[in-house]
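Worked example 3. Consider a protein that binds adenosine monophosphate.
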Amino acid sequence: MNIILFGPPGAGKGTQSKYLVNKLNAFQISTGDILREEIKKHSDIGKIIVNDINDGKFVNDEIVNKLIEKLVSDPQKKNKLIFDGYPRSLRQAKNLDSLLKNSDQKIDLILFLNVDKDTIIKRIEKRKIIENRSDDDSSTILKRYDTYMKTTQPVLNFYSENPYFKEIDGSLEIEEITRKIDTFINV
Ligand code: AMP
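Given these inputs, the predicted complex is written out as structure tokens:
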């Protein structure tokens, strides 16, 4: 199964992706993790993106699209992809469609974790203490949320007609969300 986890920052995409990776013996594609790794390595890409990430802005579509290309077409990962934080724009969604088609794959399930702004702010403030992410401070959280609303909302419309699109109340407890996800995966 190829699954997209969709939702605002702090919706719990990372937590549920890890659950799905274990359950389905699949591979997580977290563009946030991939980008943070580039920064840690001080790679050329890392140097280009560091300011955008710290400012709560989205990284350029071409850069992100390029970074996931090999992972999507890797035969070992075929039909075992869990997308966490990708696609986040219409251009990325269209790119993913064609990448999957080229490797004879499709999206099987889109899980939209819907969470209100206040819950997100509270959750990210907690995460800041645990993970110490540089983009988790309160002013950046608001920017990231606004960017999500502006750029990622159209992606929601792009997918919501899809029969595999499932909305879940992301403000529920982790176990409760997992239980709902379980009802959508037939294993
Ligand atoms: P995340 O870990 O998914 O919350 O992502 C952290 C940050 O990485 C985001 O606020 C963006 O700056 C950047 N990022 C992650 N995924 C993407 C993406 N698909 N497109 C553009 N920027 C991204």
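Take a moment to read the result before moving on. The CA atoms of residues 13 and 141 lie 16 Å apart. Residues 9, 31-32, 35, 52-53, 56-59, 64, 85-86, 88, 92, 135, 144 surround adenosine monophosphate (CB under 6 Å).
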